[in-house]
Design brief:
This protein has a single domain (4-158), classed as Nucleoside Triphosphate Pyrophosphohydrolase (Alpha-Beta Complex). The protein is an alpha+beta fold. The chain has helices at residues 51-63, 131-137, 143-158, and strands at residues 4-12, 18-24, 37-38, 41-43, 72-79, 85-92, 105-109, 117-121, 123-130. β5 and β6 (85-92) form a beta hairpin. The protein is built from 3 helices and 9 strands. It is globular, with a radius of gyration of 16 Å. α2 (131-137) runs antiparallel to α3. The strands form 2 sheets. Strands 1, 2, 3, 4, 5, 6 and 9 form a 7-stranded mixed beta sheet that branches.
Length: 159
């Protein structure tokens, strides 16, 4: 069965095109930067939940704030090499302040095979990045999302 996720990618055009992405939390990502960032997103079941509703839910859970009131456009579905698929919606985040986050948490056994459970933030920081920096920072399976956003923004500019 294919694992499906939905996420929200906020963009702003001033001072130059940027996107809001989040650094993944937990011990596996703590000392990594390149390839350790993600679009705020999470799993959902398409048979029981609308993808845009799920993307909003996950944004709230991961960042602890409401996504801005904006028009959301479906950017596309992107497949990871693992087979997982992520449906991404983009929206103009001009005026959205990337601060006052209260990151959601998850629990896992840590250290491995210790029998102890520890709690970690789902993401440990979020910030605006220009498109080239975001492309490098994102996990490999999400990098094509930036290319799609660039094309969509070029189409908007020429319309």
């Amino acid at each position: 069965m294919v694992v499906r996720s939905a996420g929200l990618l906020l963009y702003r055009l001033e001072p130059s095109p940027q996107v809001l992405i989040a650094h993944m939390g937990g011990p596996f990502w703590a000392k990594k930067d390149a390839g350790a960032w993600s679009i705020p997103k999470g799993e959902y079941a398409p048979e029981t939940e609308d993808a845009l509703d799920a993307a909003h839910r996950e944004f709230r859970e991961e960042l602890g704030v409401e996504p801005p009131e904006t028009e959301w456009a479906e950017l596309g579905t992107f497949a990871y090499s693992s087979g997982k698929k992520i449906l991404v919606f983009c929206g103009d985040g001009a005026g959205f302040t990337a601060s006052a986050f209260t990151f959601g948490t998850f629990e896992m056994e840590w250290p491995p095979r210790s029998g102890r459970t520890a709690s970690f933030p789902e993401v440990d920081r979020a910030k605006w990045m220009d498109l080239d920096a975001a492309r490098e920072a994102l996990v490999k399976g999400q990098r094509p999302v930036i290319d799609s956003l660039e094309r969509a923004l070029q189409e908007l500019a020429s319309a």
